Amino acid sequence: MKGHKNPREIINMDRVTGLVPGSKENYNACLVIVDRFRKSFRCLPCHKEDTTMDTALSFWNNIIATCGLPPIIISDRDPKFTSESWTKLSDILGTKIKFYKAYHPQIDGISERMMKIMEDIITRFYAYGTEYENHEE
């Protein structure tokens, strides 16, 4: 997807689950937000069991409140993102959520690469006994 000219104009959003718990909060997943313009990512630690509202609240508190509202959010069809709650939130805020099939490299190649990097970082942090929390590259 091309056409973005500014940071945070188009973001990819996905969840990585199945991580080894590596903090006192026992986080075992991350909500990964990729800025397609800057080719940077933000990893928000979470739990695999988090509800849709937990995920939306984390997105609100950590992305919208600090960086502003992206006009376009791209995500796979994870039930956490396709729920009525996300649809209502995007309607209220006036942002578009575009969905794609998972593992679609033409659309999501950058976020898949970023997630691989993030998994590697967390694995290395855990191997050295370091806790991971909120990390931005």
UniProtKB/TrEMBL annotation:
The keyword Lipid biosynthesis belongs to this UniProt entry's keyword annotation: no
Pfam families for the chain: rve
GO biological process, one term: DNA integration
One Gene Ontology MF term: RNA binding
InterPro entries per record: Integrase_cat-core, Retrovirus_Pol_polyprotein, RNaseH-like_sf, RNaseH_sf
Keyword RNA-binding: yes
Domain of life: Eukaryota
A single cellular component GO annotation: nucleus
UniProt domain Integrase catalytic: residue ranges: 3-137
Coiled-coil region(s): none
Key words of the record: RNA-binding
Protein name per the record: Integrase catalytic domain-containing protein
Organism of derivation: Austropuccinia psidii MF-1
